[in-house]
Write a structure and sequence with these properties.
It contains twelve helices and 14 strands. With 266 residues, the protein is α+β, with helices and mostly antiparallel strands. The structure holds flavin-adenine dinucleotide (FAD). The site of flavin-adenine dinucleotide has 32 residues, from strand 2, helix 2, helix 6 and helix 7.
């Protein structure tokens, strides 16, 4: 790890001003991705601006049929929050299934989304539930947020302050977890609100994506059988040491079917 400055921000405006003044500085959430990259010397920020203790930025509240989660909320806090568990149990379960206890105690939703790891769980929740990412300067719809491998719509000095999740009628997230890290080899979020079904897939490609064939099938019939009958081609999916593209393609409808079963159970 190279030497760096450390500062703890006390408000969002000041944190953003620090990054505007020094383009080599970076925000620090829970450090669960960034510190590992720094230890491997894959990242060498001049300064870390800790945004995880900005007052109010870890708050979780319900507002106008949305669950609003502050960007600095830790995974463990989202998993344990009574309102999240009651209004969007799938989201609480997803947060509770991230990594291990230590990762959940430190990692934040804002850090996870800004990092946009192709195998991360939160991107599937944000895209599948049709959430809105709120930053210090604008609101970004989930469909416009994820741009590619570790790439989002965020400007380099843009701070995520909260995420607004509309409350669905039914939803569930099922992942086939890497047994070592718990990252998703493939993870599928299914959410139904009225007649609209959204299906987001993580872990399978360069970035999280919506799966239209599954959305169409499940909009016509919200059943596990309908999900299982969908065939997904492997052509744009990842092959790595953990799984082939063909295996990932096979997993997508299988996990979607399990997610539908789970969502129907409530
Ligand atoms: C062993 C292990 C297992 C894991 N397993 C899983 C898993 O199963 N599923 C999963 O989804 N994830 C998993 N993770 C990743 C974990 O969820 C991290 O917490 C997450 O990727 C990063 O969040 P963080 O708060 O630690 O961000 P940091 O590491 O602090 O920052 C990551 C990036 O986000 C930026 N950033 C931080 N906060 C903000 C903000 N508010 N606004 C804008 N930019 C910001 C930073 O500058 C940096 O570029 C695992 C990590 C580890 C180490």
């Amino acid at each position: 790890m190279y030497a760096f400055q450390f500062e703890r921000a006390t408000d969002a405006k000041a944190a953003v001003a620090k990054l505007k003044a020094d383009p080599d500085a970076k925000f620090l959430g829970g450090g669960q991705s960034l510190l590992a990259a720094m230890k491997l010397r894959l990242a060498a920020p001049s300064a870390l601006i800790d945004v995880s203790r900005i007052p109010g930025m870890a708050d979780i509240r319900v507002e106008n049929n949305e669950v609003v989660i502050g960007a600095a909320a830790r995974h463990a806090d989202v998993a344990a929050n009574a309102e999240v568990r009651r209004r969007i149990p799938a989201l609480a379960a997803l947060a509770g299934g991230i990594g291990d206890r230590q990762v959940r105690a430190m990692g934040t939703i804002g850090g996870s989304l800004a990092n946009d790891d192709p195998a991360a769980c939160y991107p599937a929740a944000v895209l599948g539930l049709g959430a809105t990412v709120v930053t210090d300067r604008r609101s970004i719809k989930a469909d416009d947020f994820f741009k590619g491998l570790y790439e989002t719509a965020l400007e380099p000095d843009e701070l995520i302050t909260a995420v607004r999740f509309p409350i669905p009628d039914q939803a569930a997230y099922i992942k086939f977890a890497n047994p070592a890290s718990r990252f998703a080899l493939v993870g599928v979020m299914v959410a139904r609100t009225g007649n609209t079904v959204r299906v987001a897939v993580t872990g399978a490609a360069d970035s999280v994506f919506r799966c239209q064939p599954l959305e169409q099938a499940l909009s016509a019939s919200f059943t596990a059988a309908a999900a299982r009958a969908v065939k997904i081609g492997p052509s744009r999916l990842n092959t790595d040491l953990h799984a082939s593209a063909e295996y990932r393609a096979h997993l997508i409808p299988v996990l979607a079917a399990r997610a539908v079963e789970q969502a129907l159970k409530g």
